[in-house]
Each structure stands twice: as structure tokens, then as C-alpha cells.
Fold this protein.
Amino acid sequence: MVGAGLTGLWTAYYLLEADPRLRVVVLEAETAGFGASGRNGGWCSALFPAGLAKLAGLPGSDRDRALAQHRAMRDTVDEVLRVASSEGIDAQARKGGTVVVARSAAQLGSARAEVAEARRWGRGEDDLRLLDATEARRRLDAVGTVGGTFTPDCASIHPARLVRGLARAVERRGGTIHEQTRALALEPRLVRTDRGTVRADVVVRATEGYTPALDGQRRAVAPVYSLVVATAPLPHAVWDAIGLGERETFSDHRHLIVYGQRTADDRLVFGGRGAPYHFGSRTRPEFDREPRVFARLRATATEMLPALAGAEWTHAWGGALGIPRDWCASVGLDRTTGLAWAGGYVGDGVSTTNLAGRTLRDLVLGHDTDLTTLPWVGHRSRRWEPEPLRWLGVNAGLRAMTAADLEERVTRRPSRLARAMAPLVGGH
Ligand SMILES: Cc1cc2nc3c(=O)[nH]c(=O)nc-3n(C[C@H](O)[C@H](O)[C@H](O)COP(=O)(O)OP(=O)(O)OC[C@H]3O[C@@H](n4cnc5c(N)ncnc54)[C@H](O)[C@@H]3O)c2cc1C
């Protein structure tokens, strides 16, 4: 495994669980959990970055297979919680679902359209349902809420606790994690690192947003930064005004994604995209911190939830997630070279990495299972354009989503710009 994030660690975990005699080595450039897995927004959800229509349209796929993938994602939320519990990982998890509030007529239109689309796929009320204003406000009393949607399929988790706990579980089962060991090139049955060469029957690329730095992988995914801020633990009176009594994860139906959760120790964590994509798919520690974006996130959270006025904001961080050109995550193993991969999760990797780990276990062990026939298995997105087209395209997409939100605020109608840009910026 190259990369000790959730992809590499779940894969190592399930392989060792299935066959303790396997020799499993995880190579990590920094420390286990250093990447997105240790610093995400803590939504362990059933979301998959490509919608059902896109999954059904993949070669060899159809409506039933797309729905099978959706069911697998729903089950995965419980599987993550099951392993955390059985391995004694205190990820401070609570499965409170997700509430996405609609805060304008245009956003309510998006909420209704999403539920109508779910029904066309046979997804029932137990999966996704429309909330009226009262129900939505009972869950999250955001300014201007006129309705919303709710799904039970999400748990709030503490990301660093989950990934560090999983690393320890891998070691307990006999896996070896070599930290401070950077892979330079992945070749058939061989990894060249800055500390020597590793030979293995199977080499799993689990480097997500950092993949472009590997030899020959420059255009595999575009690293896009997501930034997060968090408050000090908030008093009960503030939570009485905000809601989230079941620690629901939350968002609203705007285009440029914002997301939040209430932590086990009563902090509010709030994140969003909006930081620029960096030319040449570069990732640097200083890109994690954009004071302008942090300030905007704090202002947006307080505008949504005025009870936060006066709250102390104690933490701010960020990290790179990986976006494939067609916004469709994938997992696979090329048997002739022994090269395997999983990634391209965009902002939905906390649970999807677990599905990837179990799928890679079955592929590596040569077992044909329900998991190995899911539509994302073996899928390959086409590569991103060379620079400067990639820089222009990704940043235009990010700006268009901000402009679409502004357009809706001004016109009070669903954005035409968002519809026009949808093919470029993906499903959600
Ligand atoms: C700020 C933020 C918020 C997010 N919020 C959510 C959320 O709420 N819910 C959700 O589902 N998803 C969220 N995501 C996405 C999710 O965190 C990722 O999709 C997921 O963690 C990816 O896991 P991974 O193991 O594939 O990659 P990573 O966790 O990035 O791990 C890759 C690892 O590979 C190592 N590495 C890289 N290059 C090399 C090399 N050459 N040699 C050796 N090691 C290398 C890195 O150091 C890193 O540890 C968020 C992401 C970010 C950045």
C-alpha cells in the first residue's frame, strides 16, 4: 500500500483480516493519517461523487448495478461504525443523519428536485426525504430556512481518531507501516522509494490528492483544497438555538459546497471549498491555510447561524482532496502488472475508502463477490488536460459555483449558470 490514509489502511486491514499470513506493508511519506483522512469534515456518509445516472451509464453497468452501488454505500456507513467499535477505536461517532436546509425558493427547488430524482430511482422516504420548514428548523435553525432534505445515512466522526485508530488496528493484525518513506515511482510489482525498493505481488496506489507528484501520474486527479474552521466547545444555550440535537451533519442547498458537524465535545466544525486550485496540481503545506477563506467560512457560518456571534474560533485547517476528470471515484487491479488503485473520491472519501478497501481485498484474493461487480470497479476516468487548460478549467468551475449562488440570491431562481457548468464540475 502506498499511502497510509483511509484507503491504504482499510485495504491493509481487510486483507489481514481475511488472511493473517499475508505480508502487508504500508509506505507513508509523512505520518499515518497525514492526508485528507486525518483532517476532513467528519461526514461518514453514503454519498458517492458520481450520481446514479452516471454510474448506470458506465460501460457494463445499468440501473440495477448503479442501485447496488448506492446500497453498498449505505451499508458502508454501518460497516465503518462496526469496525470502529469492534477494534476499540473511539472515533466519537454518532449516526445522526444529514440535514441539508433550503434557505431560499431556489434552494427549495433544488431540494424538491433531488427528492423527486431519488423517487425515480426507487429510493424511498427511509433513504431521503423532504422536510417542511418546521421539521428542517427543528434539526437546524439556520436563518431563512424554508425546508430541506434529510437522510439517516451519515455519522459524524472525529477523523484523526478514526484513521490513527485504524493504523493501530492494522499493526495489531501484523501489518507494517513505514512512515517517513516517500514512494517516487510505482512500477509493476515494485515501488521505488527515497529509502530503497519494495517488491510486492500487488502495489496499491492510495495517494489521492498527492498522486500527481508520482512519476507519470501528473494528470490522474486534480488536487483541490477544502478548508475548515472550528469553534471552542459552545454552551448549551447556543446549541439550543442552533439545533443538531442528534449531531446531524449539515449543509444547505447552495452550489459551492459548505458542510458542518457538531462534535462530541460540542464544537461546531464548518468547512467549504473556495480555495484556488494551484497551477501544475501542486500540493504544499502552505496551501492548507488561506486566511481569506477561513474568514469567509467563519462569516458564512455566523450568517447561517447567528447564535455563533461571539463564539471563539479556535481551529482552522485544510487539505487536498482528489478530483478525477469525470468526477467518478474508482477502484481496480490490473492483474498483468499487479498495480491497483483506489481514489478520486472528491469530498466523499470517509466511507468510500472503506468500500474500496473491502473491494481491493476481494480483487487481490481473486474472489468474485457482489463488491467486485459494482460499476466503479475497473473504471478509469480520462486524464485531466495539460496545463494551463487544467488550471483554467478547475478554477473557472470553482468560480462559477460561487457566481451561481450569487445569481440565485439576486434572481431568486435556480441558477442557469450552474446548469450550464454541470458537465464540467460534476454531479454535486
Ligand atoms: C478538508 C477536507 C474535508 C473533507 N471532508 C470530508 C467529509 O466530511 N466526508 C468525506 O467523506 N470526505 C471528506 N473529505 C475527503 C476525504 O477526507 C478523502 O476522500 C479521504 O480521506 C481520502 O483518503 P485517502 O486515504 O485516499 O487519501 P489521504 O488521506 O489523502 O491519504 C494519502 C496518503 O498518502 C500519503 N502519500 C502521498 N504521496 C505519497 C508518496 N509518494 N509516498 C508515500 N506516501 C504518500 C500522504 O501523506 C497521505 O497520508 C475531505 C477532505 C478534506 C481535505
